[in-house]
Amino acid sequence: MKKKIFCMILALVMVVSLMAGLSMTASATDDDWLPTITFDPNGGTGKMDSHSQGGETYPLPECGFTAPEGYRFKCWNVTGKGEMAPGERVYMGGNLEAKAIWEPIPAKLTFDAAAPAKWPRLSSLATTPCPSAASLPRKVSSLPPGSWAIRLCSPARMSTSMIF
Questions:
Q1: What single string gives the DSSP state of each residue in 66-101?
Q2: Are residues 90 and 118 in the same domain?
Q3: In terms of pLDDT, which residue wins out, 54 or 29?
């Protein structure tokens, strides 16, 4: 009788052990967590994959987003770190976000010093905020006779006025 009870208990322990072994699944623990850096286009378009690693420095990548019209990529603004350039290393001690910072593409004006003498000469150059289209004058009456003006508006809403 003792052998029979011992065998039954042993069989029961084996069945319970097998069932417990079959139902075990892998689960993430705190040891498996890795800090992640995500990338925000901040008005740009496209997608950049996040990156996870822990306790090390990570070199910020080049910007993979498409800039808004009239702007170009300047740098990353990283959570708690401020502005950082691609290639600079950031310590991955916790989750971070890198937000793309855009700067206006400056208008480029060049003047040819060897231009013919009869060409008009620049007499005034001023940079001011762009007016709205509704406030632009229909005609310029304050210019001296024989002179003309050019007004360029950049995507950053800055205006350059040149009077010749």
A1: BPPTTEEEEEEEETTTEEE-TT-EEE-SS-EEEEEE
A2: no
A3: 54
